[in-house]
Amino acid sequence: MSCHRALIFFHVAYLCFAAIRPTRGADTPAVNESTQVKLIMVGDIMVAKDEETGIQIEQGKDPFQAFAEIFKAADVSIGNLECVIAEKGVAEEKPYTFLAHPRVVPLLKQHFTGLSVANNHSCDFGKPAFVEQCERLEKAQIPYFGGGRDLAAAHRPWIIERNGLKIAMLGYCEVFMKSFQAQDNEAGVAWSENDERVLADIQSAKKIADVVIPYMHWGWESEPANDRQKQFARKMIDAGADVIVGSHPHVTQEVEYYQGHLIVYSLGNFVFNGFESEATQTGWALQMTLDKQGVVKWDTLVARLDPQGAPHPDLQAKSPCGKRGDTTILMQDHMVQTPSSIEAR
Ligand SMILES: [Zn+2]
Description:
Blueprint: H1 3-20, E1 37-45, H2 52-58, H3 68-72, E2 76-81, E3 84-85, E4 99-100, H4 105-111, E5 114-116, H5 126-139, E6 144-145, E7 147-148, H6 151-155, E8 158-162, E9 165-173, E10 188-189, H7 195-208, E11 211-217, H8 227-238, E12 243-247, E13 255-258, E14 261-264, E15 269-271, E16 282-291, E17 294-305, E18 311-313, E19 319-323, E20 330-332
Parallel strand pairs: 1-2, 1-15, 2-5, 3-4, 5-6, 9-11, 11-12, 12-14
Antiparallel strand pairs: 1-16, 7-10, 8-9, 13-14, 16-17, 17-18, 17-19, 19-20
The structure holds zinc ion.
């Protein structure tokens, strides 16, 4: 090969290499599938032993079964545990108290990568029962967030690392009873009425993680998102949160973008009996593909709760979805994300 021809060969080879090499730079981020993570989040999970959901589990049934494959197709699955798993405890004086039998732990372990405990039922049977739950989840190696043995633990993010991407999950409750909140030297949940503390948590989490997701327990039951939720969601995004997700109202609420960031105010119920209206028996499984810049694309898969409180995917239902760069929320029907179909949409 002459020098000239060799030069042409290397030049062509370089052009080919340059064409397939990912372009780096702030404006043109590399498309690197290996740094993407598929995260699925669901709403409230109530599996109390005296309720239909807990009785079904006692009889050997698995209320999560219809979603098992969908969870498996994700890298990370997260729900809100809306009860307390303990054998001992005294019920608080409040309208509803939910005590779950420890037999639910293996089922939660089977289906969930981690759980939020920041809600208005975590301390239904007192702080000692909540600490017992912490011990049981730790023994089963189920990470949890939004609550802990003291204030610092309750506010500490759960950092998940998958495919080189670091995700920080924070959990907060601002729904009655306030006595559930953790103190300096007392167990409990992370409380979000102290907005500055939450915003500081988000700023700290953003220094150690690529994506920060606060999972909020907030809003009024069976109502659209209120002004407090809307204002605080914006503040959290301004502080560095990438996505805001919520639950508690027993219904799904609005979805919107703020500064390009996704806000899903309420995922609604996921495993919960005792409801009869279509709105309260409909939840969403929020499926998100994440990378270092946040949400690449997202989808809400509709879950219809049966009379026993177990969810079933409804693939015909239209519900919100979207992708990076969208400015309006799309409504579409759905496909189950299995490993083979996960990129189809
Ligand atoms: Zn709640």
